[in-house]
Amino acid sequence: MNFFDARAQEIRDGKVQIDAGPLGDLAGRLVMLSFSHSATLTPHTLLARANPDTSIVIDNFVELDRGYCSCWGLVDRLYNPKDGSRVVTILNTLLPQRLQNLTSQETTGGRVLSAECGDGMALLISPHSSPAANELNDHFPDEIANKQGTLIGLVNGKEMGTNLREVIAKRAGAETTQSPALLLLND
């Protein structure tokens, strides 16, 4: 069972613990994120697109900073968009309404979440969750790894033509953590 299938099943079974407590009778319909950092939003957005009966609720919408407790938000207290806001906007604009066959793979360049869509494949590349070195796997079928596509930075919106193999190599060699990106491979 892959990351998405396991997460969806945990939600349906009510086993997911969120900061607000167990989901209980809302299982299968609600995922509550207690912060809206872009690395947290991206996989849950794909999960919601693959499971239309699952809603995403983001708490806090407005970023709060009381000095003793900072709470991430989609907008700052003056309603200027934060990185998470740009990520949600770009994903909602570019992703098709329905995704299928979601998979997750940890690579040297980050976590690659892939989904099939009507006219090709969408691959979301985000920072990985610190897996053990032996859990990293950069092997993808050649028809996916070498296929030219469009890479879109989810924070800045910049587009460039590239393939998955080049993206993984570039991100693996980067000195700092890279923001999430979406690679669209169209048929």
Write a concise synopsis of the structure shown.
By secondary structure, this protein is of the alpha+beta class. The chain is built from five helices and twelve strands.
Blueprint (SSEs and pairs):
Blueprint: H1 3-13, E1 17-18, E2 21-22, E3 30-33, H2 38-50, E4 55-58, E5 64-65, E6 70-71, H3 83-94, E7 100-107, E8 110-117, E9 120-126, H4 142-145, E10 149-153, E11 159-162, H5 164-172, E12 181-186
Parallel strand pairs: 3-4
Antiparallel strand pairs: 1-2, 5-6, 7-8, 8-9, 9-12, 10-11, 10-12
Helix pairs in contact: 2-3
Structure notes:
The protein has 187 residues and is an alpha+beta fold. The protein folds into two domains: 3-94, no CATH class; 100-186. It contains five helices and twelve strands. It has helices at 3-13, 38-50, 83-94, 142-145, 164-172, and strands at residues 17-18, 21-22, 30-33, 55-58, 64-65, 70-71, 100-107, 110-117, 120-126, 149-153, 159-162, 181-186. The strands form four sheets. A six-stranded antiparallel β-sheet has the order 7-8-9-12-10-11, with helices on both faces. A two-stranded antiparallel ribbon has the order 1-2. Helix 2 packs parallel to helix 3 (83-94). It is globular, with a radius of gyration of 17 Å.
Notable traits:
187 residues, alpha+beta, six-stranded antiparallel beta sheet, 5 helices, 26% helix
Number of helices: 5
- How do the SSEs run, as a string of H and E? HEEEHEEEHEEEHEEHE
Average pLDDT figure = 75
Q: Which regions are unreliable across 5 or more consecutive residues at pLDDT < 50?
A: 16-30
Task: Estimate percent helicity.
Answer: 25-40%
Q: How are strands sequenced across the largest beta sheet?
A: 7-8-9-12-10-11
**What is the multimeric organization of the chains shown?**
single chain
Overall morphology: globular
How many structural domains in the coordinates? 2
- What's the story with the biggest beta sheet? 6 strands, antiparallel
User: How much strand content do the residues show?
Assistant: 25-35%
Structural class: alpha+beta
Radius of gyration: 17 Å
Question: What distance lies between the first and last C-alpha atoms, to the nearest angstrom?
Answer: 27 Å
Number of strands: 12
